[in-house]
Write a structure and sequence with these properties.
By secondary structure, this protein is mainly α. It has one domain (7-115). Helix content is 88%, strand content 0%. It contains three helices and no strands. The chain has helices at 7-73, 76-96, 98-115. The longest helix has 67 residues, at 7-73. The radius of gyration is 29 Å and the shape is rod-shaped. It starts with 6 loop residues before the first helix and ends in a 5-residue tail after the last helix.
Length: 120
């Protein structure tokens, strides 16, 4: 079977096909990036909302604990001092375990989000 088409026509068709392919791949990369960015931002928003609500709840919980401890300790100032000590211990705990608590899960999440292939 012989090809009777002009080689320049074949080259032009190949060029047009490659150009269209590059345009489609560029568009796919943009859509994929927007999808992953949306997932990332929504996860950050949810985590931020949960943290804000948890901090507020923890504040009122410790505030009420200070008032519960006041009759036992005989001093409101001493009970607030104990609560402050609990906060300091929690801060030290989170600083010492920041890699296990924050960094490793964040790296794992971002790696799964940006580096794994979709199952589509």
């Amino acid at each position: 079977m012989t090809n009777n088409q002009d080689p320049s026509t074949n080259f032009q068709q190949l060029y047009d096909d490659v150009k269209k392919y590059v345009e489609l791949q560029t568009e796919y990369i943009k859509v994929d990036f927007v999808e992953k960015l949306t997932i990332l931002l929504s996860a950050l928003l949810i985590i931020t909302l949960i943290l804000v609500l948890a901090i507020g709840a923890l504040f009122y919980l410790f505030f009420s604990l200070a008032y519960v401890l006041e009759p036992v300790l005989g001093s409101l100032a001493l009970s607030f001092g104990i609560i402050s000590g609990i906060y300091v211990v929690l801060i030290v705990f989170f600083v010492l375990l920041r890699r296990q608590i924050v960094i490793n899960p964040l790296v794992k999440f971002l790696t799964n989000l940006f580096l794994t292939k979709p199952n589509k």
